[in-house]
Amino acid sequence: MPLSVRISRRAALRGALATPFLAAPALAETWPSRPVRLVIPFGAGGSVDVVGRLLAEKLGSFLGQPVMIDNRPGGATSIGAVHVARSAPDGYTLFYGTPATQIINPSLLPNLQYDPDKDLVATGSVMRAPNLLLVHPSLGVRDIAGLVALAKQRPGALTYASSSVGSSNHLSGEMLCRLADIQMLHVPYRGISQYGPELLAGRVHMCFGTISDMLKLSENGGLHRVAVTSEKRNPLLPDVPTVGETVPGFEATAYNYIAVPSGTPRPIIMAVNAAFNRALADPHVAGRMVETGLEPLATDTPEQASATILSERARWKQVIEAAGIKLEG
């Protein structure tokens, strides 16, 4: 009798240990069994929100469950990030990540309310968003070589606008200053609605911005489309050179990705990865993104996304520290 009891306990223990491994694949097979929320850390109507809604619509069409957009702006994406980090790790609360959350904020903000390494886990990539540099014609330059030469002649006299301190268009300017060994004055505004009219009027000399925004701004204003910030020329603007063609090593694109709360089971992570990769590979979705100057990334694994976050963080940390940029928070 004692022997049979011991055997029964061992069998029960083996069964208990096996349960998580048996349950994990089942989780992926049933995900999603109810609506999924995609938290976007920006307000409705912006470029990230537009892409998020495009993906959500496509995901809902083949997942059999709606993917609902939950806009939670503020705190340089911290409000949305904290909400997702504290959510159940079950695959039903997803985070749309941009450079701020796990790439820029660790170097820019001293008191983050989340751990950028431990609280969120990347499931895969979404896209890279290049910037386009517009220059007011009053400067008399049409290319990066001319701009750099003028900046060297007039150190600190040329101004460039951005949507905020620490934004992609701000850091693109700082990277150009660092790699080209020039000095320009950064003038932060609160979005393109403020700095657009200032650039058109010539009260600020230049700005970096998303390709779609800059194309609209330069349609009727006579602004020069000088260069794109991606590694390669953008298909939407094949005649516009890259900054890197003149300034070696320059590449500045906003990396976007999807993340889930830490502790999410691996099968769920892989299911989320597969779903987004399928949506991003859809010709309609990819076409909509490309026609606005974006670069969809439809094949990355969770490991590749995590590695990209770390490499981007190291690269931008150098730029931020060299420029002495810091925010309270």
From TrEMBL:
<keyword id="KW-0732">Signal</keyword>
<dbReference type="Pfam" id="PF03401">
    <property type="entry name" value="TctC"/>
</dbReference>
<dbReference type="InterPro" id="IPR005064">
    <property type="entry name" value="BUG"/>
</dbReference>
<dbReference type="InterPro" id="IPR042100">
    <property type="entry name" value="Bug_dom1"/>
</dbReference>
<protein>
    <submittedName>
        <fullName>Tripartite tricarboxylate transporter substrate binding protein</fullName>
    </submittedName>
</protein>
<feature type="signal peptide">
    <location>
        <begin position="1"/>
        <end position="28"/>
    </location>
</feature>
<comment type="similarity">
    <text>Belongs to the UPF0065 (bug) family.</text>
</comment>
